[in-house]
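Record copied across here:
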Amino acid sequence: MPRGNGKTIAQNKKARHDFTIEETFEAGIVLQGTEIKSIRNGRINLKDSFARVNNGEVFLHNMHISPYEQGNIYNHEPTRARKLLLHRKEINQLIGQTQQKGYSLVPLKVYIKNGVAKVLIGLGRGKKKYDKREDLKRKQQNREIDRAIKDSLK
């Protein structure tokens, strides 16, 4: 199965608006207790989350996974830092690229692939305000062109 395919649980739509994604990486997540049950129920939020490389390991910060309702004492802290599982070669590549000015690691989506929770993280450069406006104009123009083509075919 190609990278990023599987049953999508959560998607960070704002990430592609705020960042120009140049490369993506598929990573596993180290979860505790009832976190996977909450993820399967769709109780996850990627808004304002980011990844960071610390001591040769990649961690995902501010990803909110709601506590599982039937979890009682085995529940987890909702916004704890979670370790991402990547190959050493990928981590070394990320270390080199994130040290460049303007690059950051952004989670794009969380999905279930072969029964395992995965995160698609993107290496992105922050967009300026005028870039965001240009993208919105381009999308609007494409919509209008598609509508015109559709109307002309009727």
In short: The CA atoms of residues 56 and 91 lie 7 Å apart. The beta strands are 7-11, 19-29, 44-45, 50-54, 57-61, 64-65, 82-85, 103-113, 116-126. The first helix runs from residue 13 to 18.
